Automatic annotation (TrEMBL):
Binding site for substrate: 41
Entry binding sites for ATP: 12-17, 50, 108-111, 167-168
Family matches, as SUPFAM superfamilies: P-loop containing nucleoside triphosphate hydrolases
Similarity comment: family membership: Belongs to the dethiobiotin synthetase family.
Enzymatic reactions: (7R,8S)-7,8-diammoniononanoate + CO2 + ATP = (4R,5S)-dethiobiotin + ADP + phosphate + 3 H(+)
EC number, as in UniProt: 6.3.3.3
Protein name per its UniProtKB record: ATP-dependent dethiobiotin synthetase BioD
Pathway: Cofactor biosynthesis; biotin biosynthesis; biotin from 7,8-diaminononanoate: step 1/2
Organism this protein belongs to: Nocardia camponoti
Amino acid sequence: MSILLISGTSTDVGKTIVTAALAATAVAAGRTVAVCKPAQTGIAPGEPGDLAEVTRLSGVTRTLELARYPEPLAPDTAARRAGMPLLGLAETASAIDTLRDADLVLVEGAGGLLVRMGEFTLLDLAQKIGAPVLVVAAAGLGTLNHSELTTRLLAASGVECAGLVIGSWPSEPGLAERCNRDDLPRITGEEVRGIVPAGVGKWSQERFTVTAPSWFEPKWCP
């Protein structure tokens, strides 16, 4: 079993779409995939969340969600406001371990690396289970600072960075986006492993799964 944690430089940078694209790419390569979203916020019971979107786009049906909170806040804040228990680090690690028969387990965090998913952050989880973290970055202004802060923290914490993926690349990139694409590896010391076009989350499953492998480096495999 290979485990890859997916974090973002902030919220709304495209983590769920990148997770779906990675799942589709691994399936296309003949691997079995499971996807875990430890904590989901801003979704009422019974409503489709991020894992439903991953399934809709990638076709991967083996998914695991551990906690769901109604308000669109950081998971620990949402849990406290709802009077619900916080996720624990040990229980989350154990839940991920139940997916070990899959070739690849993708674990999508909430927001950035230090957002608390319960009593822990994604960084704590990465240290606990010894898994690398893929960083999903924005394309526009601010991404160099956010990306370097994130990759520096991973390095200082002894956690492997699996590289960067630009989560939503505009169809007509401006000067800032074009410069950032060149500067991200130089600033962070990490490779840009993939670039996911903006708007692909609206595609059909067939189109998404056929095209997703082209968004990542040909020789890179999580």
